[in-house]
Amino acid sequence: MRERIAILMAVLLLLVPLAVYAEPAPSVEKLDSISDEALQMVKIHRYQDAKKLLEHFEKEFLTVTGEGRSFSMDELRIITVAHDEAIEAAVSATMQHDERMNRVTKFRLVIDALLSTHQPLWTEMEEPIMTVFSGMKDAAHDGNKEVFLSNLDSFLALYNVIYPSLKIDISAEQIQKLNTRVNFINHYRPQVLSNEDGQEELEALESDLKDIFDGMTEDESDPSLWWVIISTGSIIILTLSYVGWRKFKADRERMNNRQKERKN
């Protein structure tokens, strides 16, 4: 009986600390799943199905908040705006498919950024964003206005898709600095093509973007998590070793007693 209690206590010691690092509750995970399903429906032009899923999301979101999951006022504003835009994309009779995709993708990334405990999905946009940016920078350097403007418009469209998620995951100082550079390049398009200051601004923006993506794609595992795993794992090993030793000792004593009884 004592051996069973010791094993049970060892298991509890392992499970209790790791509960802190548990994945989101099923109801929260459902929000992530619904937003992904809505995006998949838009991708295959099933807009009405996407609309139903987005309406269902709203009900589930109210359930989650009612269960005690809290969001800041800024987060609630970001969710509301992204959700409204996604609904509009699903019901619009005139919106182009690409714009629908951008809006629902934006919503999908926002929900993931709010709920993910690891690397957020919006970091997967790094390659297309930096590829378009590189084309824009090269065109500016060559003085190719048409290619520069085309790539700039593509970059702004992609930036707009991840912007709400950036507001969730990076500091207010970073987002303000990034926005200032993006707005400058958009507002002063001719100057970016014609003078060195514009070129320098492009270089600075590229550096800021790389820093943000690199910062989010680094291993963010809390070192204390490994300490918890190692320390509790050691307790388990020591406890089980002690239990095994106790059992071995008891068996040996039993055998000795039997041998003594036989001799007697």
Commentary on this structure:
The structure is a single chain. With 264 residues, this protein is an all-alpha fold. The chain has 11 helices and no strands. The protein has helices spanning 2-18, 26-43, 47-66, 73-91, 97-115, 126-142, 145-169, 172-187, 189-194, 196-217, 223-263. Helix 8 (172-187) runs antiparallel to helix 10 (196-217). The radius of gyration is 28 Å and the shape is extended. Residues 4-24 and 219-243 have low confidence and may be disordered.
Keywords:
mainly alpha; 83% helix; 264 residues
At a glance:
By secondary structure, this protein is an all-alpha fold. Helices cover about 85% and strands about 0% of the residues.
Topology diagram in text:
Elements: H1 2-18, H2 26-43, H3 47-66, H4 73-91, H5 97-115, H6 126-142, H7 145-169, H8 172-187, H9 189-194, H10 196-217, H11 223-263
Helix pairs in contact: 1-11, 2-3, 2-5, 3-4, 4-5, 5-7, 6-7, 6-10, 7-8, 8-10
Task: Note the main sheet.
Answer: none
Query: Helix fraction?
Result: over 70%
Radius of gyration from the CA trace? 28 Å
Report mean pLDDT, rounded to a whole number.
Answer: 80
- Outline, from the CA principal axes? extended
Q: Return the string of H and E elements.
A: HHHHHHHHHHH
Can you tell me the residue ranges where pLDDT is under 50 for at least 5 consecutive residues?
Answer: 4-24, 219-243
Beta-strand level of the residues, as a percent range?
Answer: under 5%
Per DSSP, the total helix count is: 11
Question: What is the β-strand count?
Answer: 0
End-to-end distance: 31 Å
Q: Quickly give the structural class.
A: mainly alpha
